[in-house]
C-alpha cells in the first residue's frame, strides 16, 4: 500500500497553537493577580496602579514640584481610590478654579476696565475731585423708585456701557420716571423698544424737567440727555441687512454702537436673494472691526458674509417670515448651524448685537 505524505507544517500547527494558548492563560492569570492586589488595603505604602496598561511604562523620576495646600488634586493610593493631594503652586493674582472630577484647572483673567482707567487718569491730572472720583468708582449705586423699580446707576462706569431701559411691557408713567431718574443721575439714558405713545409720554415728562429727548422711530429708540454725544473711540462697526424688513433691528444696533463711541457704516438690502448686490456693498464697509448682519426668513446672509471677510461676524436673526418655523426661528436655526464661524444673538436682539459689536471694535483701539 502506497504511503501517505503528511506535511511537517500540518504537524506543527496544532503544537504552535497550543503554545500560544498557554502563554495567553499565563498572561490572564498574571493580570488577575495584579487586579486583586490593587484592592488590598495596606497602610503607609504607595505603589503604581497594577491593572492599567500604563503600569508597565517608564515613569519620570524627577522630583515633584512644591505643593499648594488649598487646591485639591486626585492621586492614586494602594487601594486604587482617589485621595486629596495638591498641585504646583501658581503665583498669580487671578481667580483659580480646579475641577477635581475632570482634573482641569482654569485660571480666569479679568481685563482692565478702560472707563475706570480714564477716571483715575482724570483724577491724577486734577480734572476731577477726589469725591467725584470716589462716587463714580463706586459702581454699585442703586436708587429705588417707589415700590416698582430699583435702578442701577453704576452700570456705565462698572461695565463701560450706557444705561439702556427696555420699554416693552412697562407702564408709560413708570417708564418716564425710570428714564428721567437715570438721565438726571448719569447724564444720559437710552430707551429701546419704545412705542410712539410711550415715547410721547416720556418726552413730555422729560421736557418739564428740562431734559432733551430725541426719538428715532425707525429703530424704536428714545434718547434722553442734555450732555454732548459720546466721543468717538476709533472703533468701526459695519451693519448689513438682508432686506429692508430687517432695518428696524439694524437701526437699534446702530444707535447702541454709536452711543458707545463707534463709527457705524451700513449696507442695507443686500441679501442672498440677489447675492450680486452684496459684493459692491462690502467695499464701503471692509474697514470695519466687526460686522453685524441682520437677516430674517432662512437667515443665510451672516454665513455668506463670514466667508468673505476676515473680521468677526455677529448674526442677528430677525422675526421676518411666516409658515413653518417663521418669525425668525428658521433664521436662528440656520445661523446656529452655520459652517462659517459666526456668533449669534437672540431673535431681534439689535441692542445685544450693537453693544457686543461695539465692545469688540473698542477693544482694538483701547490700550
Word description of this protein:
There is one protein chain. With 367 residues, the protein is an alpha/beta fold. Among the domains are: 66-108, no CATH class; 141-224, 2-Layer Sandwich (Ribosomal Protein S8, Chain: A, domain 1), CATH 3.30.1370; 236-363, Rossmann fold (3-Layer(aba) Sandwich). Helices cover 36% and strands 18% of the residues. The protein is built from eleven helices and 17 strands. The protein has helices at residues 8-38, 114-124, 130-138, 155-159, 172-186, 196-208, 247-259, 278-283, 301-306, 329-336, 350-363, and strands at residues 67-68, 74-76, 82-84, 87-88, 95-99, 104-108, 142-145, 149-152, 164-166, 189-192, 213-216, 221-224, 236-241, 263-267, 290-295, 313-317, 343-344. It has a five-stranded parallel sheet with strand order 14-13-15-16-17. A four-stranded mixed sheet has the order 9-10-12-11, with helices on both faces. Strands 1-4 form a two-stranded antiparallel ribbon. Helix 7 packs across helix 11 (350-363). The radius of gyration is 33 Å and the shape is globular. 28% of the residues are buried. The model is unreliable at 8-13, 40-57 and 71-93 (pLDDT under 50).
